[in-house]
Design a protein that fits this description.
single chain, alpha/beta, Quinone Oxidoreductase, Chain A, domain 1, Rossmann fold, seven-stranded mixed beta sheet, six-stranded parallel beta sheet, 11 helices, globular, oxidoreductase, ER, ADH-like_C, NADP
Length: 347
């Protein structure tokens, strides 16, 4: 099959389409014929040689896909009763021994991967697969799973954002940011965002953001403290010197969820300031989690977020679509930060 491979660590030009081999599905796994793959910042880091695939995972990039189930490993198929009650785009209610919803060949699905999504086919544990939400286009669904799982697991499952609290989202116009805004707004939180231009901030406002901060000339610490009395939860993709500023922007009992370090991996931390705020910091990586933890997150996403997508309260926001052969162009757009929402590769 064809896949986009990294010929050597480097800039976007090192991405090339090549023939690769992929084993079929094993016990508890599905094979998916890929329709589209999401492009993420982590893919850029992998291309640069800074974020290799975990052991046992294909070495080509890609953390999320949408597509059609084409083969099923043992203990991953639907029960006989389930097959009669659902069709493409909706999974059954159970599969023996999997602890996750079952699927059948032909189902329209989207999936969270440890890697290997830039390809014509993927094999993935059934616990990391979701039916495409009703009303969502199969292609657009490729931009859902990684961002939804990241935001839901960090902002809601770990940091416990509640209705009436304030959420501060850094990089509000990114794929992660646009989903965090929508989920926060839909679930009753007040949302503050940072972005770098009026156009990006306007897009954030249309998605439900309440406090719009242009970080090129506004002090987000001052704005959030003045307008909200501090943030109860901060979703941080920057790291570096933002850590100290995030602590100063926290409300009492506030929580920082750090998921990336685009601004640097090292930071200064005033422990006294953190203690006075009674604040907490959680730093996580979704890709490195064991399969059982990913399955738990995916199940919680299905129960809590999929109804919001099917009602239209939350939607995937797609910035651009590129053919698989133009993965280099997709990466260049990602690195430019000129996009609003998700970037997809069409397979």
């Amino acid at each position: 099959m064809r896949a986009v491979v990294v010929t050597r660590p480097g800039d976007a030009s090192v991405l090339e389409v090549a023939e690769v081999r992929l084993a079929g599905p094993g016990a508890g796994e599905l094979q998916i014929d890929v329709v589209a793959a999401g492009v993420n910042r982590a893919d850029v880091s992998q291309r640069e040689g800074r974020y290799p695939s975990p052991p046992g995972v294909p070495e080509w990039p890609g953390l999320e896909v949408s597509g059609i189930v084409s083969a099923i490993g043992p203990a991953a198929e639907r029960t006989a009763d389930d097959r009669g009650s659902t069709g493409p785009g909706a999974a059954g209610t159970g599969a023996p021994g999997t602890g996750a919803p079952g699927f059948a060949v032909g189902d329209h699905v989207c999936a969270l991967l440890g890697g290997g999504g830039y390809a014509e086919r993927v094999v993935v544990p059934v616990g990391q697969v979701l039916p495409v939400p009703r009303g969502v286009d199969l292609v657009d669904a490729a931009g859902l799973v990684e961002v939804v799982a990241t935001v839901w697991s960090n902002v809601f499952m770990l940091a416990g954002l509640a209705a009436g609290e304030t959420l501060l989202v850094h990089g509000g116009s990114s794929g992660i940011g646009t989903m965090a805004i929508q989920l926060g707004h839909a679930l009753g939180a007040r949302v503050a965002v940072t972005a770098r231009s009026a156009a990006k901030l306007e897009a954030c406002r249309e998605l439900g953001a309440d406090i719009l901060i242009d970080y090129t000339h506004d002090d987000f610490v001052e704005r959030v403290n003045d307008e909200a009395g501090g943030a109860d939860v901060i979703l941080d993709v920057v790291g570096g010197d933002y850590l100290d500023r995030n602590v100063r922007a926290l409300a009492t009992n506030g929580r920082i969820a750090n998921i990336a370090s685009m601004g640097g991996a090292e930071a200064r931390l005033d422990l006294g300031a953190l203690m006075r705020k009674r604040g907490t910091i959680r730093s996580t990586s979704l890709r490195a989690r064991p399969a059982a933890e990913k399955a738990e997150i995916i199940q919680s996403v299905r129960e809590n977020v999929w109804p919001l997508l099917e009602s239209g309260a939350v939607r995937p926001l797609i910035a651009a679509r590129f053919p698989l052969a133009e993965a280099s162009a997709a990466h260049r757009l990602m690195e430019s930060s000129d996009h609003i929402g998700k970037i997809l590769l069409l397979v």
